[in-house]
Amino acid sequence: MISDEKTAKQNAADILVESLPYIRHFYGRTIVVKYGGHAMVDEQLKTDFAKDITLLKFIGLNPVVVHGGGPQINLVLDQMGICSTFVRGMRLTDQPTMDVVEMVLGGKVNKAIVAQINQEGGKAVGLSGKDGGLIRSRKLHIMHQVDADKPPEIIDPGLVGEVTHIDPDIINTLTGKGFIPIIAPVGTGERGETFNINADLVAAKIAIALSAHRLILLTDVDGVMDSAGNLLSSIHAAEVDELIRKKIVTGGMIPKIEYAMDAIQNKVEKVHIINGTRRHSLLLELFTDKGIGTELTE
């Protein structure tokens, strides 16, 4: 038993030593994290995430969190008897649905994340894209093609938006004063409309606007897998089209990769796609030699 305790302590010390060059490298840098999936539902994982984000701030990084909230939105919509329809992973959003989305994302979910980080000793502040003109947006139209021999169908998703502009002033002000911004992916249109925007897309655009050093997308899978089901630990931008063509990258991973490529092509050094259901996945990816997920680079 004593031997096991000594081994555990030695392993912990080894990990701390291994992390030192990475902490030095990331010191003062901005890290944008998209927080979503099962990590936002499991109580232990929520606590771990709050601790990890607080630790990043304490050791000199500037974490910025963009969160989703699909399961929480679904629960409230079900309770209200409002049915949801999805196309290419996007929720078709009429005004009653948008009211619920904004209430859940900007209210319940956002403030719960803020409270949990603050409970761990961080100084988190909740924002939506409406605050300080952070996210400007416009209506998104979806091109949906079922049959290659027929022209694509243009689908009106309602109040679903795409980002036209990010004004990072409010984020820079908060991070400069030691706060951790927690951002709900809701944007404002030219006429004051409210739009629901994909959180991965918002995270990528915010990373670009902040000239972030890293963008990290938390998912419910280990990363990008090859045709044999093995994790691809690193992907270069030049390989992406081929991976999609060969259907190695499929389904919901395609838009994540596309957003990641947009970030990389706009001077975000690396994007990491990691499994948020693993405890302390953020720290394992950033501060260990092997990491745990897939990194995408130019």
General description of the model:
The model has no long low-confidence stretch (mean pLDDT 89). With 298 residues, the protein is of the alpha/beta class. The longest helix is centred in the N-terminal third of the chain and has 25 residues, at 2-26. A hairpin with an 8-residue loop joins β7 (142-144) and β8 (153-155). The protein has helices at 2-26, 43-58, 70-79, 95-119, 169-176, 199-209, 240-245, 253-265, 281-287, and strands spanning 30-35, 62-67, 86-87, 90-91, 124-128, 135-139, 142-144, 153-155, 161-166, 180-184, 186-188, 194-196, 214-219, 234-236, 270-275, 294-297.
Report mean pLDDT, rounded to a whole number. 89
Based on helices, strands and strand pairing, what is the structural class?
A: alpha/beta
* CATH-derived topology: Carbamate kinase
Low-confidence runs of at least 5 consecutive residues: none
Count every beta strand, where a strand is a DSSP E run of 2 or more residues: 16
Strand content: 15-25%
Overall 3D form = globular
Order of helices and strands: HEHEHEEHEEEEEHEEEHEEHHEHE
Instruction: Quickly count the domains.
Output: 1
Number of helices: 9
> Over the alpha carbons, how many angstroms does the gyration radius reach?
20 Å
CATH superfamily: Acetylglutamate kinase-like
| Name of the CATH class | Alpha Beta
Please tag this protein with its features.
single chain; 298 residues; alpha/beta
SSE map:
Layout: H1 2-26, E1 30-35, H2 43-58, E2 62-67, H3 70-79, E3 86-87, E4 90-91, H4 95-119, E5 124-128, E6 135-139, E7 142-144, E8 153-155, E9 161-166, H5 169-176, E10 180-184, E11 186-188, E12 194-196, H6 199-209, E13 214-219, E14 234-236, H7 240-245, H8 253-265, E15 270-275, H9 281-287, E16 294-297
Parallel strand pairs: 1-2, 1-13, 2-10, 5-10, 13-15, 14-16
Antiparallel strand pairs: 3-4, 6-9, 7-8, 11-12, 15-16
